[in-house]
Amino acid sequence: MMMMRSRKATNLRMMIAGSALALLWVVSGASAQDATQEKSYPVRGKVISAHVGGEAVGSAGIVGTIKRWIFRVDCGDLYYDLQGKGKPTLTIGQDIDFRIEKQKAYMKGENNKETKFPIVGMGKPDPKPKSD
After folding, report:
1. CA atoms of 29 and 10, how far apart (whole Å)
2. Which helix or strand (DSSP H or E) is residue 12 part of?
3. Which of 15, 35, 122, 129 has its CA 20 to 30 A from that of 113?
4. How far does the chain reach from its first CA to its final CA, in angstroms?
5. How many C-beta atoms lie closer than 10 Å to residue 130's C-beta?
């Protein structure tokens, strides 16, 4: 009787281990497939304005200002304010394609490298006045 119980426990452990390995294999295959998939840039817009904004940084009584470019991109029904770096990387009137992920806009650049822009604002554009 004791031998039978031991054998059942061993079989159960083997089944659990096999199931865990199969699940691991399926999950790792899915993540590898996602990594090789080409990223798409479904959001299309036009840069309509650019200005330099200041950002206060520092601590312990030492505070400085970092100047960063803010680009407004009109996408038709929405606009996005994208924060650039210290040098302007986009130009007014430039058409861009980008994707949004976790409050950041990613734009494909040279050599398939992505440029990341934090989204610091968004909203609906002002309604255009009707001409009579």
Report:
1. 29
2. helix 2-36
3. 122
4. 96
5. 5
> Cβ distance 53 to 34 under 8 Å?
no
Which of these, 83, 74, 85, 84, lies nearest to 126 by C-alpha position? 74
How many residues appear in the chain? 132
Domain ranges (residues) in the chain: 43-123
Q: What is the DSSP string of 59-76?
A: ETTEEEEEEEEEEEEE-S
Smallest CA-to-CA distance from 104 within 122, 123, 88 is with 122
Of the candidates 49, 40, 45, 39, the one whose C-alpha atom is nearest the C-alpha of residue 96 is 45
Question: What's the pTM value of the predicted model, to 2 decimals?
Answer: 0.63
SS3 call for 16 = helix
pLDDT in tens, 64-73: 888 889 999 9
